[in-house]
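so my prof wants the structure for this chain in the tokens format not the other one, which i didnt know existed until like an hour ago. anyway here's the sequence
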Amino acid sequence: MFSDFDWLRRARTGVELLATLKYLTYKGEFSHDVEKDIGPPPTALSGPCLRCWIYPRHEEDDNYCEVCKDILIQSKGLGSFIRQVIVLWGYLNQVPYSLQEERWKVNHKIHGAFFHGKNRFLIMIKKRDIKPLLQDLVIRHGPDIKGLIQTFPTIGMGSEIGMGDILCRAIHHELNQPMNQLWIRFYSSPLQLINPRLREEKGMLTFEISEFLALLDTAEAFRSLLKPEEQETLYDILSKDKFRENNFYWGRFLGQLNREARDMLTGWGIRQWPQNRFELLYELTDYVAFS
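here's what i got, hopefully its the right format
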């Protein structure tokens, strides 16, 4: 019946996806006897599990099968934590040594992992751990690792589209990128996987690994040297049309900054950046820590 990956695709939210990964890690492979464990057809008095709609309910007064019940119990308490977590779906010529089964468990930055065949993997990490993880891949493997890693946030309650649907869309898009080097595809919202064309046309989606790490370095410097209120003020100035009075606001804004921040923005020439570029910068500030 259900394979391990089928159970991952049953996840409606990011919390359920992470709980399923934890269940799979600590309880081993899911196993059900098809002849004994298939649930009864839905009727007014009974029916299968209300979550997977395949297996029988754990007990007569339960709504869920044993596996779904354990996953939902595991989900409790993860609601606040999941907001800090992103999903990485990789399709590479080889699974990196540091991410292979058993080895990733000693990496405390990885909170859940699943390996689908010899070339695909799914891991969940905190947003701000993506930079050290990618740097480790480059240092350890260099040009030997080729393929595509897609990163996207999780989905919460209330969405018509579940995390399982998003995973299927990620698989659908993975063959659109050549396996000639390591590429990173960055989605700031999981719903962008439904139709990524607009983001791709803006140049905000696919990056070569060194380019993406450079963008993260830029975002880290930006976040470290500008206070949150200064970042908001700068965004307001850059978002407005280039009216003459903007020169006044820009000059006054620079006068309020310390020397390091002023030199950074002036050296970047950030006022000449296209809108897509500084929007991407602001998106990436959530993915870096203070230096």
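also thought this was worth mentioning. The chain has a mean pLDDT of 89.
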